[in-house]
Amino acid sequence: MGATDQPRRAALPSSPELPAHGWSTHETLERLEALRVTDVRWKEGRAFSLAYQASPEAHDLATEAYRRFSGENALNVEAFPSLRAMQTDVLAIAGRWLGAPDTARGFLTSGGTESILMALKSARGQFRATGITSPNVVLPTSAHAAFHKAGAYFDVELRCVPVCSETWRADASAMARASDANTIMFVASAPQYPQGVVDPVADIAAVALERGVNCHVDACMGGVTLPYLERLGVRFPKWNFAVEGVTSMSVDLHKFGYTAKGASVIMYRNAALRSHQGFVTDNWLGGFYGSSGVLGTKSGGPIAAAWAVLHHLGDDGYLRVARSARDTTLSIAAAIKAEPRLVLRAEPDATLLSFGSATPDLDIYAVADGLAARGWYVDRQAPPPSIHLTVNAIHAETYSQFLSDLAATLDAVGNSSGALGSYGTLE
Q: What are the pLDDT digits (tens) for 210-228?
């Protein structure tokens, strides 16, 4: 613990040790609420990262479904057939979003990081059986940090290839040149997180197919939204299992599926590919043990919440919230492009965008500080120094105030006038 943590911790209404006499339910909940008094007000649409909300009703439903099944254990669905049924339903729905064939098989995981870990672990096991003992994965520098975590966990070399300088998309030709006989997987994103653009999945998958190796598409941010944006006429590169050569995909339900935290899907083109994910052993005194992913014991709460919200929103609901998030994203992007002090990093393909300073004398991180002081939570990223926004349905109600506060922050930080203020009431 750093020294700077001490004053903050001392001010929190908590106990440094187990109380001699247990607190009442009322007191415990009061203390819990006091602990989060300075948390970002994400339910009010003040966070452009980490938290997602389709509607208060959907959030309340997810919370209640989670509560009802929080104690059930998905480690063994033989004991909890309700969880097996819910998982089957959720995987089928996610498979349709991803354009998965009838042969596809998947698992629910605790999040996008676990889904990516499992995709890489499965590929390692698959190609270890063919004699590859020093595997590598080729990926663009825009691919999620979880791939680096997976490489560190499973001792797999990562070969990171710069993205195209003008589009921020992965460079399939450069990725092909970076591969060799020990390459087991190529990676694409739909969309990639930093600039919000969809990689050329078809080109990358074609390279993987030619070499007889895997291609994983990380659709954690877009797997729910992109199918609905396509129906709304939005154009972007082909991105899912409809592309020959794509062998696995990940999609987070607790992002733009608006379910409770702890719900993601890893989907494989067929059962043979999925077979390398699980872990089984009987080499201990407790008998047979098996699990599908990193977790052993796994609460039924996220599974029930996912099942409940997916059925509550329905196809029409997801179309509605996708349209809302997309319209809001475009409105924010238009405002940023009209502001001479800012530069939009890329035209957003979906509902993610990032922007930076258009002039060397404007510190974009100082802008982020100013927004934080006004109650907004945004991601800071680099290189290049940028502010990142993950726009979801709730921001339709708050983005006008965000743009107004952004304009005021720019004035406070940079002293130059701009056009952004006129966008404070975009419709």
A: 999 999 999 999 999 999 9
Write the CB contacts of 255 (distance below 8 Å, at least 6 apart in sequence): 52, 112, 220, 221, 224, 390, 392
Per-residue pLDDT, 288: 92
Tens digits of per-residue pLDDT, 363-376?
Answer: 999 999 999 999 99
Percent helix / strand / coil, the chain, rounded to 5: 40, 15, 45
Q: Which three-class secondary structure state does DSSP give residue 28?
A: helix
User: Alpha-carbon distance 388 to 379, whole Å?
Assistant: 5
How many domains does one find in the chain?
2
Angle between helices 399-414 and 364-373 (to 10 degrees): 120
If you average pLDDT over residues 375-396, what whole number do you get? 97
Encode pLDDT of 144-172 as tens digits: 999 999 999 999 999 999 999 999 999 99
User: Quick check: 4 pLDDT over 60?
Assistant: no
Q: At what angle do helices 301-337 and 81-97 cross, to 10 degrees?
A: 30
Residues with Cβ within 8 Å of residue 110, at least 6 apart in sequence = 262, 263, 264, 293, 294, 295, 298, 302
| pLDDT beyond 90 at 424 | no
Who contacts 38 (Cβ-Cβ below 8 Å, separation ≥6)? none
3-state secondary structure of 418: coil
- Are 142 and 245 in the same domain? yes
DSSP label at 394?
G
Burial of residue 119 (CB within 10 Å: 0-12, 13-18, 19+) is buried
260 shares a domain with 130:
yes
pTM (whole model) above 0.85: yes
Q: How far is CA 193 from the centre of its chain?
A: 8
Residue 94: CB partners within 8 Å, gap ≥ 6?
106, 223, 251, 253, 265, 267
Domain with 134, as residue range(s), is 63-309
User: In angstroms, rounded to a whole number, what is the distance separating the alpha carbons of residues 233 and 330?
Assistant: 14
pLDDT for 414: 75
Residues 167 and 188 in one domain: yes
